[in-house]
Amino acid sequence: MSKNTAKKRAAGGCARRISAPLGSPAVSPAPASPSSPEEDEVVQPDTHSPWCLICRDGADGDVGLYECNACPRVMCHKCIAVPSDSLELVARPDIVFMCLACHTQRTVKEPGPFHGFYKGSLPELGGEPALQGFLQLTGRFETGSCATLAAKPIAVIHFIVGGSDEVVTPVPLLSLYLKYFFPTGGYIYLKVLFDVTTHKKISAYTRAQEARFAELKAHLTHGGRVLASFSDHSEEDSGWLFTGKEKGSFVAMSVSQVLSTVLGPYSGILKAATMIFLVCGSVVAHVEPFRELQDAILNFDMASAIIFSATRFQPLVATNFLLALAEQVVVEQFDLRRAFPTLLSLSSRLGQHTKVILMTRDDANGMRKLLVTTFARAHIQTQPWGIQVPAQCPRCGSTNSWSERVGAKAFTESLNSGVADQVSVSRYLYSCLYAQCGKAQGMPCYKFHIDKPPGSIINAAKSKSSGWFQSPSTTFPPPSPVVSLSIQGKRSASGDREVSTKRARV
Asked: Average pLDDT for residues 195-215, to the nearest whole number?
């Protein structure tokens, strides 16, 4: 037997389970720091991004930035060619500037020349172009045309169980990357270590967060944003989260108990935050812990959350994914759900390790709920539709022995002459190629099939041989069942077409 010389990196394991903190409750526990609705109001920032929308560079030496009067974006004079005889004109206080992103949004339906500078007010308020002709661009986009580069203050909060070395994560690297985009101090990184195994420890933890909460609140006053991560182990048999150590051994409690205790002092900060749970997939695999986690997301009014399904999740594998998220969602301020296919396309290795679950707020019709979507890497040979092909034949033990897959194609015949028939692969068939497979048991060679589940391949994250498969989104809490009455004499829509299947080697 080899010695265990490497430190555990997976965010899962076994721990003693307890239903409540150990010890007696403190006589006067320090209260959490929730904010009143008035305090939670965000004020629109009056500052602009320090980075040019086009080249992503800042102002240095003779490079100046033109601040947009319609948004927080800026453009440098290296990326737009202001005529030399107009430099004094555009510097006048009565001249306003509209950046290329705002111009693009206003001319989506009807293209028009980019003038940039206007007299007195923006064009929708009657402002006239200040220059004789259009404003010439000399740079090219290195980000999306609607990106807003780090204009608002950002706080990265890293909740981590026990000592700082208990869970190995890429969050410190993420913090170093983000810090570069806030040279004027609009960035703060806070590492929150927690051990909340006993009532005494909970009381001490809650009191210790008061000063940190005040610091964060002041930092985020002007429309700031929060990116939070929660690094912890989870108990494999129950999905409960670790709370810390007692007598040298980890202790686990229910997800609701841990999250309410650890996140409670920051409840006023986490509203509209994005939370990344760097924990093992046992939280997702067990129904009640996953329900409690989703309840916590809603109760803390978070905007979105991400969790991973791997049984022994390795947080470092998510490094590329998290760096892409930092750039596109935090720095460029794109909507997380819309940017998600792009993030996944840059993270194929992550897909070999785990599925990714995205949860975003959807408060349509005045009801608080989450839109929950699961994404799985799809590979034409090893993981069709995100379902793994066995690495070994269960009958003979052979590896890499599967035949060339055979696809059963489904033909959906339309009764409408103007609509073409649809053809899709609905099942893959496999058989073991080892000549002796099954003979020892007096059985034929092993065969199996994989049926296509509901969902689709994401085109934006698709390559020649692999991609990401998106399962249909669900809502949490699930909708109440609706009782419907069947009406006789009416034909269902499904009766308007016929489906047939045919095997084909694909």
From this structure: 91
